[in-house]
């Protein structure tokens, strides 16, 4: 039996008016990969902060190798042997790889930092992970995946025996994620306990040994072998009810209707060539591909954020050259739900009501441009109710909401503007199972009401759940298109074959695969 490294005994953490953790138990053993699961707000982040010394618990106790410990700061947690890689990078971009790896305890000589002596330990840590990186290279020149692996190398340098990975694959391509999994397996083999926090259950079942599930601040499943549970078991524990794949009510798409949006042999400055695609009323058309395929870049070029260098884009049959997202909305009724909700989707320091009505201020404005607070609140209230956005009040700042509710606020502003075509880019990245399910239902209902939707997603299950047709992109071209029968095994096989058959010439998407 493996040795227990870190154990939580009935941990309680209370904030003003909120009992964030209520008797949580957790047992982490050496040489294991442990999944920590739960919806947004279940207590995962609070527990991670307790384990890394950011928060001091109000009750319960922590033991390390059998002895009670009190972690009063992140530095104490690091010295104990607990490391963490957060979803947001914690590196200094201008520093080298070696400087970042050794940052917490840099080698010194006569009281001065010895930069030359950083190279050897950095190379040792990189070597343990099988990474071939130049220790003198500035971190800002690395890819997102490489930066994440440098974070893990930092944990090796500080001799972490427990390593917490918070949503480690959220911004990685499938190939980069698999490379990360290889590193995680290597860490397991050397005796490290890796705690894997993720909303992607297919990854959890592929890599983890044991699982703890939190719900409403309590551990409803504690340090249990993952092999003893099915996917639906785990989802049911997370949301408090049995849950299977999203089942949408029947919806008809009139394939003979004139397209609302058409691309005809479009080329862009970003490198797209020969892009042809139609989106009809009430239809959800998916753009699927690996990271770097050019899906978001295509949409941004259409919205005037990059140059269209050839071909023709038509809206309701009329050729258009859109110069800005503002023109796209106010002249052509096109809304764009961006994947980067924190920087582009919502104003974090502004009230929810203002975020929702920002697209209709011109319509609401009275004399001298004055916008009535009463009308603003009425519009926002209707959409908050319609979308089920969980808020304390319309005056609450958007930055105080969970990621899923921020995404709903971002969607609400486009619905407020009576959008006639909606582009949805990675709508459920980083949100929990319940919120993802609710978002799928929202998108489906909008399409049932006749709204044409262009969906970009890297989540293949999400794409097969929602899209009526899937256009598969690779290397800034559409390599093929399939009608979606929503049989996951059959559809995923077809889509993946198209992605990996890059050597064949790009096919016209109107030649639909049967």
From TrEMBL:
Give the main location: membrane
UniProt membrane topology term? Peripheral membrane protein
Localization (cell): Cell membrane
Name of the molecule in the record: ABC transporter related protein
Q: Which InterPro entries match?
A: AAA+_ATPase (IPR003593), ABC_carbohydrate_import_ATPase (IPR050107), ABC_transporter-like_ATP-bd (IPR003439), ABC_transporter-like_CS (IPR017871), P-loop_NTPase (IPR027417)
Organism whose genome encodes this protein: Streptomyces violaceusniger (strain Tu 4113)
Per UniProt, what is one Pfam family of this protein? Answer: ABC_tran
Question: Which terms in the Gene Ontology molecular function aspect does this entry carry?
Answer: ATP binding; ATP hydrolysis activity
Cite the CDD domains for this sequence: ABC_Carb_Monos_I (cd03216), ABC_Carb_Monos_II (cd03215)
